[in-house]
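User: structure tokens for this one?
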Amino acid sequence: MIKSIDKRNNFKETPFDYTIIKDNKMMIYWHRKHIKTITEKEFVKVKSKIEVAVNQDEIQLILAKLIKNLEDVDIKRLQC
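Assistant:
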């Protein structure tokens, strides 16, 4: 039996999103607010993982692992 990726149903709403921009960069969003930009080196790895992902839950997990900890992000800036 395969274990669920999202045991707490946090990814049901798909809080993470991404946009690929010029020069092989990726912008990651959390609830439609920009929180991180990934540069060329990491972009290649992430893009290949996202292309292999089977469903939206796996993509959400990949993006969540990139962010690691939302507490490191300036929360006051996100609440605007």
